[in-house]
Amino acid sequence: MNCAIPWPLRAPFTAALAATLVGLCSVPALAQGDAPQHLRIVGGVAGVNQYTRHEEPFWTTELPRLSGGKVSAEIVPFDRAGIRGQEMLRLIQLGVVPFGTALLSVTAAQDPELSAPDLAGLTPDMKGLSRVTAAFRPYLDKTLRERYGIELLAVYVYPAQVAFCNKPFTGLAGLSGRRVRTSNASQSDLVEALGAIPVQTGFADILPNLRSGNIDCAITGTMSGNTIGLHEVTTHVHSMALNWGLSVFGANQAAWNALTPQAQALLRRELPKLERAIWDESERETSEGIACNIGAASCTVGRKGRMIEVTPTADDQRRLREIVTMTVLPRWLQRCGPQCAQFWNQTIAPVVGFEARP
Question: What number is the average pLDDT over the span 297-302?
Fold first, then answer.
């Protein structure tokens, strides 16, 4: 039976609907042999540099060039494909999305353990994040393959997620009492521990919520905040990374197996390069985003603002570590279950220096 799933997806798919579609339609066929192969990709967040400078050009331009025209692809960002981030892993598992990108902090609503390497406050610098991710990656690879039937192909990262506010403050303690946009449960745990009020919203809703007064501050990427114009509606930005925004790119196992060995080898060789380029750019954008928001001369890519940078204090660093160990980690463990303490203690604890206690 031959039937087409809409592309891009026009409306959110529930798991039930996805299961029905997959029951009627096999995973989208990929040609075998020497015939050209065309892939359908769901990428990361629309409009940010990870997507516009790296993901989209790789799939639409670089891949056809590298394969000599034998492999091509079309890509759509997940937040413009009618897909809720919480459903992405399930949709890849079902084959509705053959190749897709999932934000780990968002998928944590269904699978909390996957957010472990990027809990809010855990790694305030990219070097630490890289070490934690490397320690966690074998467990992530195994879990995606065995639980979801997903082949892990890359791990991407967004620039540091920091706090933008529309009124002055001098440190993290100054967020107390304010309504702060968060994007995931562990950010909300951190914000609550600071005495603030978390308001969980999507990336596209940040600007309208600030303009309407529904929120006073927003946690988002340094450069992505600049891209959407936060430097025009907020006055102060704290430069400490509260977390980062890890995402995984993976393939439905049947879709992966339908690729020729040559196509698989090409992707295995080139996707780590794409991953490295995204990590390098995210590190550059972390500092460049701050520079652009405050209007520094070193800003060459974004739009120059006039914000005031709030630099981390020793008290901020102490408070963040305390909140992670006393609030963020225990609450994550409550959502994840006592069995999650074991893999934390085996993978991440040796890197960060503290264990999870079930």
Answer: 92
Please answer whether residues 106 and 79 qualify as being in contact, where contact means their C-beta atoms are separated by less than 8 angstroms. no
Q: In this structure, what DSSP letter does residue 311 have?
A: P
CATH 3.40.190.170 residue spans of the chain: 15-158+245-285, 161-243+291-339
Residue 358: its pLDDT value, please?
79
Pick the CATH number of 161-243+291-339 from 1.10.238.10, 3.40.190.170, 3.40.50.300, 3.40.50.150: 3.40.190.170
Alpha carbons 332 and 90: distance in angstroms, whole number? 21
Helix (H, G, I), strand (E, B) or coil at 76: strand
Q: For residue 84, name the pLDDT band (cuts at 50, 70, 90).
A: confident
pLDDT: which is higher, 110 or 89: 89
Q: Decide if 245 contacts 105 (C-beta within 8 A).
A: yes
CA distance 287 to 296: 11
pTM of the model: 0.86
* Fold adopted by 15-158+245-285: D-Maltodextrin-Binding Protein; domain 2 (3.40.190)
For 31-126, strand residue ranges (E) read 37-43, 71-77, 99-103
Alpha helices, DSSP H, located in 150-260:
185-193, 206-212, 222-227, 230-233, 253-257
Task: Please state the φ and ψ torsions of residue 153, each to the nearest 5 degrees.
Answer: -115, -25
The b-or-e profile of 139-151 (16+ CB within 10 A means b, else e) is bbbebbeeebbbb
Closest of 243, 221, 226 to residue 125, by C-alpha: 243
